[in-house]
Design goal:
Strand order of the largest sheet: 5-6-4-3-2-1-11-12-13
Radius of gyration: 19 Å
Number of strands: 13
Number of helices: 11
Strand content: 15-25%
Length: about 325
């Protein structure tokens, strides 16, 4: 276990935490009707007061910078984590960034993308989000029409519409039929939308087909965040402890990113899959110490992560111990 390493005397600690299945246990929706699935899934995954307390305590320690890196929409994450002011959030896997409030002004003022960055303010919660994407979402109209056609013919499936992406869920459908429909749907989307515009990913374990803007992934997102922190001189990332924790395929991108940044994996010798997984190379100002880089897979399964925990509760207990050190 990496508890001793995590609770050591690092000058700074940067946490990148997936949400669904990592900080909270995912509900089994196989027996839920498709009309109720999306609503129930959202309701059951709401953070508990204990989790909010742990995250709040972590962010109060000036040594810590904590980010939740999620595929969920920014409005939902904003409402859930509004009270944790110094929590950073990457929504829709990095399409939108909410910087920790204590360092927001400094980070936005040093952004090289300030001329193209758009920042929208949530009127109710008074939080600022940075739009990290410069791409159009015009492709969504044609793709949504196709998803709707497949939803009508696939019992137990439903569509999740986000600001910058679309997901087709078939977790409540017949396993074999749903899987085959997803493969067929993938092929049709490739015919109507250029591969230079979108990435199409089928997550077989969670039975989701996701269509999102080209170049958006959690690996590139955390490398960008680390680069911004270094450029603003908020932390010396080479001397910081960096933790990434996640439970599923999209989180593997974070693990590979940290392996590349710490020199544990050669970018030029990496497999074709891993090279294709990133929309950018490791920034020059992001060079990590492999001894201070922790990757943690939540749930026992094949993974490039260095460590495993069996369930979200185990990870949260460890984070609570770290928070209580403050």
């Amino acid at each position: 276990m990496f508890e001793k390493q995590l609770r050591g005397g690092a000058t700074h600690r940067v946490f990148f935490l997936d949400y669904d299945g990592t900080l909270v246990a995912e509900e089994n929706l196989e027996n839920v009707d498709d009309e109720e699935a999306a609503e129930d899934y959202t309701r059951n995954m709401r953070p508990s007061s204990a989790l909010l307390s742990t995250l709040s305590a972590l962010t109060k320690d000036k040594r810590n910078i904590v980010f939740v890196v999620s595929g969920r929409e920014k409005c939902q994450l904003d409402s859930w984590f509004a009270e944790v002011k110094n929590l950073g959030i990457a929504a829709e896997k990095g399409c939108f960034i909410r910087w920790p409030q204590s360092m927001e002004e400094k980070l936005l003022s040093t952004s090289e993308a300030s001329s193209t960055t758009t920042r929208g303010r949530n009127a109710e919660l008074k939080t600022t989000w940075e739009n990290a994407m410069e791409t159009s979402s015009e492709w969504k109209t044609d793709v949504l029409r196709l998803l709707q056609a497949y939803t009508e013919r696939t019992d137990g499936s439903y569509i999740e519409t986000k600001e910058m992406s679309l997901s087709w869920h078939y977790d409540a459908a017949d396993p074999v039929f749903g899987h085959n429909q997803a493969i067929e749907l993938h092929r049709y989307i490739e015919k109507i939308v250029s591969s230079s515009v979108v990435d199409i990913t089928q997550y077989s374990y969670h039975r989701i087909l996701e269509v999102k803007p080209k170049g958006v992934d959690k690996g590139s997102t955390i490398l960008n965040i680390l680069s911004r922190l270094a450029r603003a001189k908020i932390v010396d990332v080479s001397k910081s402890l960096v933790l990434a924790a996640g439970d599923e395929a999209s989180d593997e991108r974070m693990f590979h990113a940290l392996r590349l940044a710490s020199g544990e994996e050669d970018e030029n010798k990496s497999s074709l899959y891993r090279r294709a997984a990133f929309s950018q190379t490791v920034p020059d100002n992001v060079r990590l110490d492999p001894r201070s880089t922790i990757t943690c897979c939540v749930g026992r399964r094949p993974s490039p992560a260095k460590f495993y925990v069996y369930e979200p509760a185990e990870l949260v207990r460890l984070l609570t111990k770290v928070a209580n050190d403050y």
